[in-house]
Design a protein that fits this description.
It is a single chain. The chain is an all-alpha fold. Helices cover about 60% and strands about 0% of the residues. The protein has one domain. The chain is built from nine helices and two strands. A two-stranded parallel sheet has the order 1-2. Helix 3 packs across helix 8, helix 5 packs across helix 8 and helix 6 crosses helix 8. The protein is globular, with a radius of gyration of 17 Å. It starts with 5 loop residues before the first helix and ends with a strand.
Length: about 190
């Protein structure tokens, strides 16, 4: 069981594609995933935690998941180089909260040491908390958004999950669609 089904993820990508004003900046981030902020660095545990959370949000199925797409590096780049310090601090506090919750409820194991089923249970808790009180958990919405955005703007997301056409042809408003077809991305 995953936190975000493929169908839900594809619905969200439609919103992402609609945000074409920010797309060029997102694609630029994929061009250089080296963090340029000299005042901020993730430690190895945080990098692993981000990768594991992203993989539970967009897991590998018949197509590669978030880890294979490098979504964790995209998230790190966006948080380190694009977030204001207060937002970055809130994000990092949220990550620490995931590990603290895991340790408290799963025998002292951090999130990354938990089984996949335990990780899903932990993230379901944060999803429930986020919807109960969004003002206290904005980082959860941000990591989900960054994961979906990063995945569907990656080469793997565009070419293996969506139908990608680098140079789109003519507009066809009556393009045949069969249930289960991949969504288009240009």
């Amino acid at each position: 069981m995953s936190i975000l089904s493929r169908r839900e993820a594809i619905k969200k990508v439609a919103l992402i594609v609609g945000g074409s004003l920010v797309l060029p900046d997102i694609l630029k981030a994929w061009g250089n995933l080296t963090i340029e902020n000299p005042d901020f660095r993730f430690d190895l545990a945080d990098e692993q935690l981000i990768a594991d959370i992203a993989e539970q949000i967009v897991p590998a199925t018949s197509t590669p998941g978030a880890k294979a797409a490098g979504t964790d590096k995209f998230i790190q780049k966006m948080v380190a180089d694009c977030y204001e310090p207060a937002d970055r601090d809130a994000f990092m506090k949220g990550l620490a909260g995931v590990d603290a919750y895991a340790k408290k409820n799963f025998g002292g194991k951090g999130f990354s040491a938990c089984t996949a089923a335990q990780q899903v249970e932990i993230l379901k808790y944060f999803e429930k908390e986020y919807h109960a009180d969004k003002s206290g958990k904005p980082w959860w919405g941000k990591i989900k958004d960054l994961t979906v955005t990063g995945f569907f703007t990656s080469e793997i997301g565009c070419e293996q999950v969506l139908r990608y056409e680098a140079v789109p042809g003519r507009y066809d408003g009556a393009l045949p669609y069969k249930k289960g077809d991949k969504a288009w991305v240009n």
